[in-house]
Design a protein that fits this description.
Structural class: alpha/beta
Protein name: GGDEF domain-containing protein
Radius of gyration: 21 Å
Shape: globular
Bound molecules: ligand C2E, calcium ion
Strand content: 15-25%
Distance between the termini: 68 Å
Organism: Rhodoferax koreensis
Number of helices: 10
Oligomer: single chain
Number of strands: 9
């Protein structure tokens, strides 16, 4: 028993140290990254499932670390949130995305929209300076309708931080609200009405096994019907196969997003229309 305990101790401690050290390094490197502008934005098309047209895209941040290469936002967004750096990072993403949508509205489609992920942390103290966001929009000649803000269910349950007031400011400016990862959080359906959401994004975990798991198909159907009843549009995330796309389209899902259509990529690679083989 003693040697077993010792083994466990030996196995445990170094990895704890490793994790803590790795985290410290990441925090430090993230500060450097902000100063040295190592970030970029990739865009992924949000495709109209009836027509194949692309009039919306999601902005997804990328970090090219000088040594580690591309670091996933899943790894650094949580650290940016814990350290408060997300506020500055989020401001940068918003400003870049608005510049990009201004260009696409001129060159591609006058109603193009870019969807921007906004962390719940950005709604806390000293978070988003909404007046400066709106000023940036008008400086770029983009109406609020050019932007969608992607929030998660948890934010809507936050009774503090004047979340509903801040969302109201966005709405009044014409900025649309999109509820990300729908179905994974503790959602209360009453929030959908109360907060005047425009889009529901069905989480990719419900899309993944759509063709094999009847429960997932049933859930997608219910979400789509409910959303439409409330006047919301639906985006399915993580669409990877034509079979998934066809099932979702047949269920009345409005938009699809996923590797089937395009991976997130630099703005110059945006496909503006995609073939919808097998439909219509
Ligand atoms: P998310 O908002 O749910 O974004 C969708 C994620 O799914 C993206 O991962 C995207 O690349 C990935 N994806 C798209 N299509 C497919 C598909 O067909 N199959 C699979 N397996 N995955 C697909 P990514 O870019 O690594 O971003 C991860 C998360 O990081 C995002 O999840 C979002 O929560 C966060 N994030 C990314 N950019 C930002 C940002 O600018 N601000 C904030 N606050 N969070 C961000
Ligand atoms: Ca998102
Ligand atoms: Ca999502
Ligand atoms: Ca997410």
């Amino acid at each position: 028993a003693k040697s077993q305990g010792r083994n466990r101790y030996n196995v445990f401690t170094p990895s704890m140290q490793d994790a803590a050290q790795k985290r410290m390094r990441l925090i430090n490197d993230l500060r450097v990254a902000m100063a040295e502008k190592q970030f970029s934005i990739h865009y992924q098309p949000i495709v109209d499932l009836r027509t194949g047209q692309v009039h919306k895209a999601e902005a997804l941040i990328r970090w090219r670390h000088p040594v580690e290469g591309l670091v996933s936002p899943a790894d650094f967004i949580p650290i940016a949130e814990e350290t408060g750096m997300i506020v500055e990072l989020g401001d940068w993403v918003f400003r870049e995305a608005v510049k990009q949508v201004a260009a696409w509205r001129r060159t591609h489609h006058p109603q193009f929209q870019v969807s921007v992920n906004v962390s719940p942390m950005q709604f806390r103290n000293e978070g988003i300076d909404q007046a400066s966001w709106l000023a940036h929009l008008s400086a770029m000649g983009v109406p609020g309708q050019g932007v969608l803000v992607e929030i998660t269910e948890g934010l809507l349950m936050d009774a503090g931080h004047n979340v509903s007031g801040q969302l109201q400011v966005f709405r009044q400016a014409g900025i649309g609200l999109s509820l990300d990862d729908f179905g994974t959080g503790y959602s209360s359906l009453s929030y959908l009405k109360k907060f005047d959401i425009d889009f529901l994004k069905i989480d990719q975990s419900f899309v993944r096994n759509l063709t094999t798991d009847p429960d997932d198909m049933a859930l997608c159907n219910v979400i789509i019907v409910m959303a439409h009843t409330l006047g919301l549009k639906v985006v399915a995330e993580g669409v990877e196969t034509p079979a998934q796309r066809d099932l979702l389209a047949a269920a009345g899902c409005d938009y699809g997003q996923g590797y089937l259509f395009a991976r997130p990529a630099p703005a110059g690679e945006m496909p503006f229309a995609l073939p919808m083989a097998g439909l219509n």
